[in-house]
Amino acid sequence: MVESYRPHLRKDDEDARSHSQTAQTNTAEMNAIVQSILDQKDGTVHAIRPQQSLHDAVIALRDHHIGALLVTDQTGALLGILSERDIVRKLAETPGTTLPQKVEDVMTRKVETCSPSDPLVTVLKRMTSGRFRHMPVLDGDRVAGIVTIGDVVHYRLTALEHEALQIKQLIVG
Known about the structure:
With 173 residues, the protein is an alpha+beta fold. It contains six helices and five strands; from the N terminus they run ααβαββααββα. The strands form two sheets. Strands 1-2-3 form a three-stranded mixed beta sheet. It has a two-stranded antiparallel ribbon with strand order 4-5.
């Protein structure tokens, strides 16, 4: 018996499906590591000493258009990090007397760090779960840079745009 009509079924499309994004391509370690972000930055790391005032820190944050400063000693060793959030919390606690206080009294001493070879997906997860936006990058004991949550998102969006362009070129020829 020959069928004259059969409706289109979902299983008819199973072989024709393709996936431009997978968990593997979105988290490919060979491309998505911290060093990939550091390579795109100018290498400048803004730091402040623990004995300096919060006023000095606020001026540096404003002038450099950044959201955090690394706190280092005279040898460049990482002692902590001072973010805009740290300063805002202190402003709420001590209104009118905050800016003369020392960085060491406000900074975050327990700093989450990463290495240049860490996968970006791991760094992003740590930043999200820890609710912080800046992470110093240490290469051994040396500060190699700092990555922000914005850096990670921008890197991934750029990669997706590149992938979309490649797919378009494959289609157009």
